Amino acid sequence: MAWTIADVARMSGVTSRTLRHYDEIGLLTPARVGSNGYRYYEEEELLRLQQILVLRELRLGLSEIADVLAKHTDEVEALRAHHRRLVDERDRLATLVTTVARTIAELENRKDGSDMTNLDEPENLFEGFDTTRYDADARQKWPQEWEDSKRFSDSLAPEDHERMQRETSAQMFRMAELMEADTPVDDPAVQAEIDVHYRGICKFWTPTAAAYKHLGETLASDAQWKATYDRVRPGLADYHRDAMAAYADAQLD
């Protein structure tokens, strides 16, 4: 049985325009094209489209998806590999849900006059976060820096990662206090905190002015990171981004 591109779009939720694009780049070629120019898809193409959509849900780019599919010629084994990825992602999201729920409860407790335990264990703010989702973008833009960063990160022991998370959390709270005091982002006190932040980043890699600004934009625009900053104080993600930009303009090439 064959389905038209309109049928496939209706069933999958993928637009006809996207399906045509997948055809143009060789990611999903129709089983045949009729004399009327219509694309027709059969079961094999539908299974491949399912794999593409699964990998898109796992935040892979189209070129990465093409590489993954090229390596898996056995459909069952390919689905098993995708299933393992989905289970890992499900477990990560479950941990993240718990993290956010715990922070909400602790913020509500603080409003009631109770202590906020995340201050005692600030690394809890970051439990369940997957920073590897930025790897492809960073590797493409700054390949040598990405290699240096990965090499340094891989050399760290678990207790080193926990210590660095605590340091990051502590700095977020200090920045929040400066923001609450309406301290301008180019004030020496703010810039001193950003200098600490920059030097911490330099343990992994040494950003240029453009790269450091890009990092600030990522922290302020990525949903997970922005939520983490703004749970400490609403608006902190943007404040931190602007302070990083001011530092880059004043201190970096």
TrEMBL record:
It comes from the Bacteria. Coiled coil: none annotated. Signal peptide: none annotated. GO terms for molecular function: DNA binding; DNA-binding transcription factor activity. Gene3D superfamilies: 1.10.1660.10, Antibiotic binding domain of TipA-like multidrug resistance regulators. This is Transcriptional regulator. InterPro entries: DNA-bd_dom_put_sf, MerR-type_HTH_dom, MerR_fam, TipA-like_antibiotic-bd, TipAS_dom. SUPFAM superfamilies: Antibiotic binding domain of TipA-like multidrug resistance regulators (SSF89082), Putative DNA-binding domain (SSF46955). The keyword DNA-binding applies. CDD domains: HTH_TipAL-Mta (cd01106). Keywords: Activator, DNA-binding, Transcription, Transcription regulation. Residues 2-71 form the HTH merR-type domain.
